[in-house]
Amino acid sequence: METRSSPRPLIMFDPHPRRIDVLFNSETKRRLESLGDVIWHDGAPASDAHIERYLPEVTAIVGQSALPRERLERAKKLKVVFNVESNFLPNIDYIECHRRGIHVLSTAPVFAKPVAEMSLGLALSAARRIHQADAAVRAGNETLYGEGDNHDSILLHGRPLALVGCGNVGRALLPLLRPFGGEILVNDPWIHPSALREMNVTPATLDECFERAAVVFLMAATTTENMGKIGRAYFDKMQKGGIVVLASRAGIVNFDELLDAAESGRIRAAIDVWPDEPIPAGHRARRTPNTVLQAHRAGNIPEIWPWMGQLVVDDLELVLRGLAPQRCQRAQWETVSKLRSKPIE
Amino acid sequence: METRSSPRPLIMFDPHPRRIDVLFNSETKRRLESLGDVIWHDGAPASDAHIERYLPEVTAIVGQSALPRERLERAKKLKVVFNVESNFLPNIDYIECHRRGIHVLSTAPVFAKPVAEMSLGLALSAARRIHQADAAVRAGNETLYGEGDNHDSILLHGRPLALVGCGNVGRALLPLLRPFGGEILVNDPWIHPSALREMNVTPATLDECFERAAVVFLMAATTTENMGKIGRAYFDKMQKGGIVVLASRAGIVNFDELLDAAESGRIRAAIDVWPDEPIPAGHRARRTPNTVLQAHRAGNIPEIWPWMGQLVVDDLELVLRGLAPQRCQRAQWETVSKLRSKPIE
Amino acid sequence: METRSSPRPLIMFDPHPRRIDVLFNSETKRRLESLGDVIWHDGAPASDAHIERYLPEVTAIVGQSALPRERLERAKKLKVVFNVESNFLPNIDYIECHRRGIHVLSTAPVFAKPVAEMSLGLALSAARRIHQADAAVRAGNETLYGEGDNHDSILLHGRPLALVGCGNVGRALLPLLRPFGGEILVNDPWIHPSALREMNVTPATLDECFERAAVVFLMAATTTENMGKIGRAYFDKMQKGGIVVLASRAGIVNFDELLDAAESGRIRAAIDVWPDEPIPAGHRARRTPNTVLQAHRAGNIPEIWPWMGQLVVDDLELVLRGLAPQRCQRAQWETVSKLRSKPIE
Amino acid sequence: METRSSPRPLIMFDPHPRRIDVLFNSETKRRLESLGDVIWHDGAPASDAHIERYLPEVTAIVGQSALPRERLERAKKLKVVFNVESNFLPNIDYIECHRRGIHVLSTAPVFAKPVAEMSLGLALSAARRIHQADAAVRAGNETLYGEGDNHDSILLHGRPLALVGCGNVGRALLPLLRPFGGEILVNDPWIHPSALREMNVTPATLDECFERAAVVFLMAATTTENMGKIGRAYFDKMQKGGIVVLASRAGIVNFDELLDAAESGRIRAAIDVWPDEPIPAGHRARRTPNTVLQAHRAGNIPEIWPWMGQLVVDDLELVLRGLAPQRCQRAQWETVSKLRSKPIE
């Protein structure tokens, strides 16, 4: 790039394992190219040589390139990094980025709506045993008018509902839960109780969430503080037939105790994320009653893929105009080091 | 009753096939008894002799007793009839009741919330194939991260949604659909377009509903005007993968054409009500793909049973105070003769 | 009309003191004429001769013609009467209309939105003394930054608000009050507490409304049961500086005690309706502090006049199709005889 | 402070022209003292000696002390600065604060709710001429039933409404405007159109706002980019009788052209903020018709003063726990240098 004389911003791609054509459609590609010179690359992680070549001139990186301090020192023009994988990895010096006014952003918010809709769908399936009743009709052993198989069907209407974790996904779920009309409890140690009250929800301890709510939605990222924390002690506090929806990160629950509680009939569990993925062939969950089981498919639906490109271009437009990004999630330097969610393979 | 000298209203029960202890809990029984003298009876339809005995003194009937004109002429004190089965049967002279200021009411509104929640659950199950993915994990043939089985998953967010029929159930469903943020189309020939606009929905023809909506919720009662009306001509107009939720009355659809459309992959169908119930053992629907199948279980869940007693007592309190009933559905003399929904057996 | 051979419905006008050209614009006139043969008349009450002439053939009356039983007996084809003045007058035999299936309707609902917006505007003016501060700037004696004149300014945000009466106007006001986020208390003896709870408001006694609410909106019609009922005993229960908005009917308050309470500084009163109108020249209210005063102008704004014609035509369309009216207010035969609101002159 | 051995955070006050007892009540004082050692001071700006004495040990400053780079270099422990005056002044090196991870915050959000409620009250007063009608009744020259003085009264219901600027105040106003049901246009050059659409409003140019909206709420901070920008060219685009509410900063309008437009009857103007305050005695606005006039009193009402203390303590709790602040407004280093709103005297 020594010979680069263009005054236009340089935008470098390193999105692996995502593919550019999945993230960007023709419109967002066009918008991106109108903003600067784009170095397109995907299919494999960019090589060190590739990265080093563009580093001194790059304004924006779209991808998960490692950015230790020494690289940041050479990236004098870098203003923004877009993680398009959705987990903030430890391969970036976030503090140094903050110091240099470099925004490190993630397109994770695109997953909020599909996960929220799936989570509500899972809760309703569990509350009404929709999936089991469907299987029964197919097998020819249904009961009519819910005689029998409706004996433990419950309404969400009017019941307390709880969110453990109220980030992107929780905030997308909240409006879907409001019209059911019950109190909404939220446990999120990273949000001040006053801020929760301002959102018109009830700040609650984990104990209160499990004791009071008909459905507990586990929506928290895995952190150093909550790994494996949700286990039997909490499930035992639930009302019989209470529902646990696990749709963000498996790391926050004691998975065996979750299955024990479902197996015993104490709770119903709707599970989309797993300690090990793919799900091992003989995993006991496959035979556990009182569950709704999905193979980590809540967020990754085709229609939201091009939203990632939109978020990137929207925020790049803002940053190039000297404004703060507004669409992507920001890596908060205060808390990013505590995140422990596993990246996708 | 010739000897009856009590000035208290007489309340007669004839709720078969419902049971009093299902409809009334201790609180609503107590409230009822504070309002008048109650002739408890259930387990079988009241005999003619039983009915005739109390007819001259009765103020309120809770049940489905036949009330032809000649009986109404003898029921000089009758003010209100509570149908607790939920379909307005042709065994009552509704015009004569109207003339005499006798309210004929149904506790059907108690089913609105459970049917609305189930309908949303069915739509989400169909949109995300939750029930199929659950079955896949149990069978050990799931795909991870939605690779493959998410290829036609859709969001409800932002998409037009349609209600065909906007009575009790439709009105209970509306608030649950609002936060998805899309336009809501309503086709209901019995509601004025201006009244629909006032409800903040878009009045629409059936054609518009099927052409534009991602999900069409069929929520209409069967009437002389709509029996078998919804068939191939409409399903062919849907976008590929569009969802039809049939959760009120099977009579309004051409059921075979509905299954054809699902089988061809043109639409997805979520079905709770059937032309013949119980569902015949070899019914083709049991093998039809792109469906979610339930055996008429959307409304009849235990927690709403005692609500029927509450509605009866609430409205009886009003009627005895000289006010119009507000909680039950009223038999509209203008339209009741057009209803053709089948009663439960 | 003996010679009338048209099979089309006959629609007779008798709207005095309203004028047709105020109620109907070219579009609603056209719609009306497409529904039947219209006998246009206004400017003065229709003469008995005029009415008697058309009575045997008339299907719909738009106006306030007297309809005693003997006239109804001759009006064999009459299906609907539209009161366009907005108060149900005692010149109709409502019971006989009910018996004959004749709907007696009022276009009063058109006033709900303007009265609701004005009521909120009055509450905010009282809460923040907007009108007084405006007068102060004009007089050159304002205080800056609210120093002094903001000492008793209050927020509606988060505070309990009360509605006394929850008919058309109350229901139009409710959604405007919701986003302020406080509890909403409703006192309405004609609505069952269960129905109020279903509307997501708190049923309350009059005492509770005045004790707890920051603003009490008096929205009730005058009835035989509530005339002059709201007086000192209630105002004394209010928190100091509490606001009373009187925007429906003056008859329900003891007007002098309302002014006493404002004068003493105990409450603030926003008044749009008066015991005698026009307001007597020397009326003490004109000098009473802690008031916002309007001369019965909340409802009668030009843009809603043609809505009356729309309501008439919408409901006439429904009635002619054999459906129940949905847009106008119905005279409830149970309660209409208790109404005592004064007609406009 | 050389001798200070306490491991507790040091919190320094320099809130002039605000007073501690106005901002903090006994509860927030207690909470503050539980968080660290507090150096109470108010009544005058803290002296340089006072500031310098505590600077090396201070963790949090509550006030508007000057913080140039050289002071920041000595404030090794400083984590957060709370501006309690509400305008970000140029006496802080914001870039250096950012680099050092020092949050510079303002308690300005406490004013959002009172300004929002006042703004709605002003719009309703202008739309219905509430203040003028009140003055007319007092003067004895009112017209009854709105005859005459309602000729240009308008409903907000269903009409497009526009916000110019959508920061704290705009966001507090939005929910109050939603139930009126009309489209909401927003012009805010610092918010991405995609972010506005996500808030369920319509991004709009200034031209579109003034051409289409019945009420334009001017809610923007004064910046280098918008000073004096809103003038005749925009007012001329409004529908006759359109309403302009100026309740944030006077600097963004050409004030004389605003008054010209009101005087001509083209628009109605509701004005709370002024180019020069106090308002000059002979200011022409005092005699300008079609206006509602307030002397900068929208935000500063007593009940929100202690909220400032709450915001300070809430965010200090978060910062001391290693989390990002959530309750106060943050000085965005990208844009803070463009702000030109005048501080209070």
From TrEMBL, chains A, B, C, D:
<keyword id="KW-0520">NAD</keyword>
<comment type="similarity">
    <text>Belongs to the D-isomer specific 2-hydroxyacid dehydrogenase family.</text>
</comment>
<protein>
    <submittedName>
        <fullName>Hydroxyacid dehydrogenase</fullName>
    </submittedName>
</protein>
<dbReference type="InterPro" id="IPR050857">
    <property type="entry name" value="D-2-hydroxyacid_DH"/>
</dbReference>
<dbReference type="GO" id="GO:0051287">
    <property type="term" value="F:NAD binding"/>
</dbReference>
<keyword id="KW-0560">Oxidoreductase</keyword>
<dbReference type="InterPro" id="IPR006140">
    <property type="entry name" value="D-isomer_DH_NAD-bd"/>
</dbReference>
<dbReference type="Pfam" id="PF02826">
    <property type="entry name" value="2-Hacid_dh_C"/>
</dbReference>
<dbReference type="InterPro" id="IPR036291">
    <property type="entry name" value="NAD(P)-bd_dom_sf"/>
</dbReference>
<feature type="domain" description="D-isomer specific 2-hydroxyacid dehydrogenase NAD-binding">
    <location>
        <begin position="120"/>
        <end position="298"/>
    </location>
</feature>
<dbReference type="GO" id="GO:0016616">
    <property type="term" value="F:oxidoreductase activity, acting on the CH-OH group of donors, NAD or NADP as acceptor"/>
</dbReference>
